[in-house]
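Incident log, structure service

09:12 report received: a user says their structure output differs between two submissions of the same chain.
09:20 pulled the input from the user's history:
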Amino acid sequence: MKHNAALSYLVPIDAPRTGVAVQDALVAMIEKAGIGIGDRLPPEVAMAASLGVGRSTIREAMNRWEGLGIIRRRRGDGTYLTARVQSSQGPLPTMIRLEGEALLRLLEVRRVLETGTVRRAAAHATPDQRRDIAALCDDLLRIVAAGLPYRDADWAFHGAISDATGNPLFGQLLVHLDHAFERSEDAPFSRNAFGLASFPIHRDLADAIGRGDADAAEAAIHAIIDSVASEIRQIIDLGPQGDAAP
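09:34 re-ran on a clean worker, output below:
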C-alpha cells in the first residue's frame, strides 16, 4: 500500500534541529511517494522508527500539521493528508512555506465570514458602536504608525465590528479561527512588520461602517484580505527578505 511504501523514503536523521529535519523529511517522503490529498500517511510509530527519532517527535510534527490543516486524524483509522505540501525550492524554510500556505487557506475562510460580519455591522451598528469603531481605528493606526505591537489593538477593532452585528457568534468564530492557527515565533508572519500595507484600508472600513455603507465595507474588507494574501504570497515566492531564490 502507498502509505507503507512511503517509509522507504525515510532515512535516519542526525541534525541539531531535529524538529526541522523531521518536517523536511516528511515533506520529502510525501513528494517522493506520490502521496496526495486524501491518502493515508504511514503510522507515527513506523515513521519514527525509520527516521531514528522518538515517537513524541513525530507526534509533535503531526500536531503542528494538524493545526495548519495539513492532515486529519481519524480515530482508529489513521492520519490522512488534507492539503498539498511542497518542499521549498528557495531560501525559505519548508515549514515557513507550509505555514504561509495554511495562512492563505485561513484567509479564504475569513473572507467568507468577515464579509458577512462587516455588512451586518454596517447595517445594524448603533451610533455609539459606530463611534467606538472609529475611535478604535484611530488607536490602531496610531499604534501601527509608532511601530508598536499592534495585535491587541487590531483585535479590539475587529472585535468591535463583530459586536456591532448583534450576533456574538461572529466574533466567537473569528477568535476561534485565530486561536486554531498557531504561528511560529520566528516566522515572518509573526513580526510587527507583517501586514502593514493593509492598515490604511482599515480607515476605509471604519468609515464605511460609520456611514452605514455595507457595499463599501465589503469592498474594504476584501481589500484588506487581498493585501495580506499578496504579502504572504510574496514571502512564499521570494523569502522573508524579499530576495529572489538563486
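09:41 both user submissions now match this output. Likely a transient worker issue. Closing.
09:42 reviewer note: Residues 81 and 217 are 37 Å apart (CA to CA). The beta strands are 71-74, 78-81.
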